[in-house]
Design brief:
Mean pLDDT: 76
Number of helices: 2
Radius of gyration: 15 Å
Distance between the termini: 17 Å
Shape: elongated
Low-confidence stretches: none
Largest sheet: none
Helix content: 55-70%
Number of strands: 0
């Protein structure tokens, strides 16, 4: 039976992939040392995706206390 209170692992994997894609795009830029405002915003968005994934995985592994 699926626990409807917790989102499926696919949600966390999609957040992780979005974070990796954004980070990869910025690191592959020819002027990696010259950050632009767009690159900084994208890195911040990637960080949010990584953080959300990490928190989600920790809560999934911790399980419910009830």
């Amino acid at each position: 039976m699926v626990d409807r209170k917790r989102p499926p692992i696919v949600v966390w994997m999609m957040l992780l992939l979005l974070g990796l894609a954004g980070f990869y795009r910025v690191t592959q830029s020819p002027h990696f040392d010259l950050y632009r405002a767009v690159d900084i915003v994208q890195l911040m968005g990637s960080g949010v995706c990584f953080g959300a994934t990490m928190v989600g995985v920790i809560f999934m592994l911790r399980g419910s206390r009830s």
